[in-house]
């Protein structure tokens, strides 16, 4: 079965950096666009970043543009989210997702989801 396993989340101070990883199995990874979403306590899940199947196209939410970078390694079946200049408002559970549509910000277009990794940014 398809599994997406996120890792790399932890407590970090404001201004710091983290790199999240999402390892995929049970699917032909290079056939899928990948996305990162996040959900803060009491808030709806929101789009953060997405990348096309070959990494040629990337998309970012305005709130993370210029600070976060999404990338993928199809040989390792892994997608990454490099997060720099972290802010307390970046605190959330971060989820990766796989979809067959060209990289999109719409959560409903993703077929598979991971369990999430907690990122906490202290002020």
Describe what you observe in this structure.
The mean pLDDT is 97. By secondary structure, the chain is mainly beta. 0% of the residues lie in helices and 49% in strands. It contains no helices and 11 strands.
Give the SSE map:
Elements: E1 3-7, E2 11-13, E3 18-25, E4 33-39, E5 46-51, E6 58-60, E7 68-73, E8 78-83, E9 92-99, E10 112-113, E11 117-122
Parallel strand pairs: 2-11
Antiparallel strand pairs: 1-3, 3-8, 4-5, 4-9, 5-6, 7-8, 9-10, 9-11
Structural class: mainly beta
Strand/helix succession: EEEEEEEEEEE
Cα radius of gyration in angstroms: 13 Å
Count of helix runs: 0
Give the overall shape: globular
Helix content class: under 10%
Task: Tell me the major beta sheet.
Answer: 7 strands, mixed
What is the residue-averaged pLDDT? Answer: 97
The total of beta strands comes to 11
> What percent strand?
over 45%
Label this structure with key terms.
single chain, about 120 residues, mainly beta, seven-stranded mixed β-sheet, four-stranded antiparallel β-sheet, 11 strands, about 0% helix
Could you write a compact summary of the structure shown?
The protein is 0% helix and 49% strand.
């Amino acid at each position: 079965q398809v599994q997406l396993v996120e890792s790399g989340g932890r407590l970090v101070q404001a201004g710091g950096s983290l790199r999240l990883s999402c390892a995929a199995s049970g699917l032909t990874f290079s056939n899928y666009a990948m996305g990162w979403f996040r959900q803060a306590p009491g808030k709806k899940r929101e789009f953060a970043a997405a990348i096309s199947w070959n990494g040629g196209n990337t998309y970012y939410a305005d709130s993370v543009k210029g600070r976060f970078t999404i990338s993928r390694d199809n040989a390792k079946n892994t997608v990454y989210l490099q997060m720099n200049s972290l802010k307390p408002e970046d605190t959330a559970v971060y989820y990766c997702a796989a979809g067959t549509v060209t990289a999109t910000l719409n959560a409903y277009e993703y077929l598979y989801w991971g369990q999430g990794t907690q990122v906490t940014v202290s002020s």
